[in-house]
Amino acid sequence: MSALAGHPSAARLKTIGFWVLKLVLAALFLFAGGAKLAGLPAMVETFEHVGLGQWFRYFTGSLEVSGAALLLWPGTTALGALILMIVSIGAAFAQLLVLHEDVVHAIVLAVPLAAIAWTQRDQLRLWRN
């Protein structure tokens, strides 16, 4: 009997790791988007400081919640990752140029989202040969 008997294969571990990453990212964006949509005072204040109006808070929160849902749906993972990556990059620019806050967390979120979008890029093709 092999020493690896009963242990998951590398492919299975990769699949499990991919799902864990997607679940963690989706949870973070669901929480952040939900906070924006619920109108938490800190979110209202932040978007007031950005200066684009509260409609932008609702827009961003909607993108975060829908992007998180798309990230978890197998056929739309790439689209969800792409939407959330764009939101993260936008947040990094807002934090750097307007809010003058730390941008590291936005960049840290954008990197794995870019990797997910890249690995699932075939989902983004409109026409297949």
List keywords for this structure.
129 residues; mainly alpha; 5 helices; 0% strand
Describe the structure.
With 129 residues, the chain is mainly α. The chain has one domain. The chain contains five helices and no strands. Helix 1 runs antiparallel to helix 3 (54-72). The longest helix is centred in the first third of the chain and has 29 residues, at 10-38. The model has no long low-confidence stretch (mean pLDDT 91).
Task: Report a brief summary of the structure.
This protein has 129 residues and is mostly helical.
Task: Give me the secondary-structure topology.
Layout: H1 10-38, H2 41-50, H3 54-72, H4 77-99, H5 104-119
Q: Beta-sheet strand percentage? A: under 5%
Could you spell the SSE succession in H and E letters?
A: HHHHH
Radius of gyration over all CA atoms, rounded? 18 Å
What's the story with the biggest beta sheet? none
Range of helix content = over 70%
The figure for the number of domains is 1
Terminal CA distance reads 45 Å
Number of DSSP E strands: 0
Task: Report the total helices.
Answer: 5
Structural class: mainly alpha
Low-confidence stretches: none
Mean pLDDT: 91
The backbone outline, from C-alpha atoms, is elongated
